[in-house]
């Protein structure tokens, strides 16, 4: 998987929820990566580029909050945005705790497919723009090194002598 086509990591312990997420997001034509636990999610994040994590809060073992804390603790994954997904009947304090853990957004199930697709599209666009900024930064650094390594006089811009322009005759 190239860095231009980073995946969307779907983390939920329920197969039906993963299938529903895949159905909603399939039209985005981006790689969808499944994880059935927080542990699997961490392995997936370290194996391949991920643009966004959709993370269920209530899972056995490492829950969504603990998984998010691990994601935000690692240098190579701390900038990956997380959207928490949870049931509508869950504790109202979950949203606060989710944002405090570093979530970029929080949605309750059942979610509106259009809203989820729109939010995911925004994060994918931000990921792509971030990669473009990094590419341009690298290109600028390379050009600066080339100019700095050039022999004296060759790396400097000089003003070209101006010649008078001829005017059309009436």
UniProtKB/TrEMBL annotation:
Transmembrane segments: none annotated. It holds the Pfam family Response_reg. PROSITE patterns: RESPONSE_REGULATORY. SMART domains: REC. Residues 144-170 are annotated as: Disordered. Keywords: Phosphoprotein. This is Response regulator. It comes from the Bacteria. The lineage of its organism: Bacteria, Bacillati, Actinomycetota, Actinomycetes, Kitasatosporales. Residues 7-124 form the Response regulatory domain. SUPFAM superfamilies: CheY-like. PANTHER family: RESPONSE REGULATORY DOMAIN-CONTAINING PROTEIN, STRESS RESPONSE REGULATOR PROTEIN 1. The modification 4-aspartylphosphate is found at residue 56. The keyword Phosphoprotein applies.
